[in-house]
Amino acid sequence: MAITVQPVNSEFVAEIGDVDLSRPLAAEDWDAIYQAFARYSVLVFCDQSLDEDQHLAFAKRFGPIETSIAVHHTDTKMRIRPDLVDISNLDADGKIWGKDSRIRMHELGNRLWHTDSSFKRIPARASLLYARSIPPVGGRTEFADARAAYDALSDEMKARIDGLVAEHSIFNSRARIGFTDFLEEERRNLPPVPQTLVRVHPDSGRKSIYVASHAGRILGMPEAEGRALVDELLEHVAKRQFVYSHRWRVGDLVMWDNRCVLHRATEYDDLRYPRDMLRATVSDEINSCERAGVAVPA
Ligand code: OGA
Ligand code: MN
Question: I need a labelling partner for 203 at 20 to 30 A (CA). Which of 77, 167, 175, 259 fits?
């Protein structure tokens, strides 16, 4: 039976039904999923039962898999293999993390609007997040449609941001929540990188606002002015009319396109309830400035 594509939110979210991602996909089903991902940019697959290899095998069909930056957190033993990102509140022994643990501080940064790995020279193309256990309340994930948000900008703003380049760093987003206690290892391996403020989505030809809490300075602009512009754009993309809020069930796999969607985690009682999610992250091909042919100012 062919898969179904049911819009959840007519603009950018669809639920894909009648599919079992633990098994190899028929060619026409893969094609339908690929087309749906280009048309929408958030796909929800319910009732999946995936082990780590099956999760990664599906993700790999979209491109190469990123290595988790948790490999640079050399003070913390990893719970999960490095080709998956541990989006949980659990330590390597499966216990809920401590209130002051560094992994907790790192992950609280996910509660700010962002796009995955824009702090890497080659950022993430797609993320595939799979829910293994969820808290009874809270812990939703919100997604914002950065293509619709771009379309809604004034012509003046479109002209203003055209060709601009922002400097992205994971330390910017963590500094926003007051966390600056990074290891030398992390600083060395995660230098700031340039990304364009506007991207053209290759599969749809549509433009999107490419901004995140990881963005700091805008190159060629006074620091305060650049940061104010980043905040203004973040606030714009996060307007209610562009946002879908996902309430998780165990077995959901949600995938999103980091080139044209922002997301954030919402609050839950992370010192009380386990929330166990794993993310497979597909890398983009090149840096956004290189793709756009924008020269990076020194
Ligand atoms: C992520 C992320 C949000 C959440 O997996 O990249 O930001 O709700 N997750 O856990
Ligand atoms: Mn994220």
Answer: 167
Report the C-alpha gap between 168 and 224 in whole angstroms: 15
Q: Which residues pair with 9 in a beta bridge?
A: 13
For the chain, what are the domain ranges?
4-292
Q: What parts of the chain have a pLDDT lower than 70?
A: 1, 297-298
CATH of 4-292 among 3.60.130.10, 3.60.10.10, 1.20.1070.10, 2.20.25.100: 3.60.130.10
Ligand 1 center–CA 174 separation, angstroms: 15
Sheet (strand 4-9) strand order: 4-9, 13-17, 42-45, 253-257, 124-133, 276-283, 85-88
Q: Tens digit of pLDDT for each residue in 181-203?
A: 889 988 999 999 999 999 999 99
CA angle centred on 221, ends 163 and 173, rounded to 5°: 90
Among 55, 88, 177, 263, which is best to mutate for testing ligand 1, by the most ligand atoms less than 8 A from CB? 263
**What are the Cα distances from residue 9, in Å, to 6, 80, 187, 235?**
9, 33, 40, 21
